[in-house]
């Protein structure tokens, strides 16, 4: 009987320990005039963080998207977001032999109607505590650029101006 009671208590204890851990967060993305473009949902996965994009109001075409090193998104240029999130001090670019920044992500394709629904993986980051956590002391953000990232050019892939930004914050 004592073993049965103990087995019933263990799952309650373990679930209480994990209750404070964030495994999913929504980031609201804004353009340079402060209009909401939709959301990007971040979810912890065994292979990193999955980003589920549901955006509208962007210019059609291929755009770069990156995780940046602060959670500030001051319009209109979003330079307050800082550089790409790069806790391991690597080179920029998914194609660079010495890269990539933890914040480097695949380009996104915006449809002719200005929408994008896509899923991306960020394998070098986490929502958990640690060096590669997106909830670092300075926080982090997601930035979309006007052009595609070429995957090699330092420091940001020659992807043009920043056109959208959203702060990553624990709710």
UniProtKB/TrEMBL annotation:
<comment type="similarity">
    <text>Belongs to the Cu-Zn superoxide dismutase family.</text>
</comment>
<dbReference type="InterPro" id="IPR024134">
    <property type="entry name" value="SOD_Cu/Zn_/chaperone"/>
</dbReference>
<keyword id="KW-0560">Oxidoreductase</keyword>
<keyword id="KW-0479">Metal-binding</keyword>
<feature type="signal peptide">
    <location>
        <begin position="1"/>
        <end position="18"/>
    </location>
</feature>
<comment type="function">
    <text>Destroys radicals which are normally produced within the cells and which are toxic to biological systems. May play a role in favoring mycobacterial survival in phagocytes.</text>
</comment>
<protein>
    <recommendedName>
        <fullName>Superoxide dismutase [Cu-Zn]</fullName>
        <ecNumber>1.15.1.1</ecNumber>
    </recommendedName>
</protein>
<feature type="domain" description="Superoxide dismutase copper/zinc binding">
    <location>
        <begin position="38"/>
        <end position="168"/>
    </location>
</feature>
<dbReference type="InterPro" id="IPR036423">
    <property type="entry name" value="SOD-like_Cu/Zn_dom_sf"/>
</dbReference>
<dbReference type="InterPro" id="IPR018152">
    <property type="entry name" value="SOD_Cu/Zn_BS"/>
</dbReference>
<dbReference type="InterPro" id="IPR001424">
    <property type="entry name" value="SOD_Cu_Zn_dom"/>
</dbReference>
<keyword id="KW-0732">Signal</keyword>
<keyword id="KW-0186">Copper</keyword>
<keyword id="KW-0862">Zinc</keyword>
<dbReference type="Pfam" id="PF00080">
    <property type="entry name" value="Sod_Cu"/>
</dbReference>
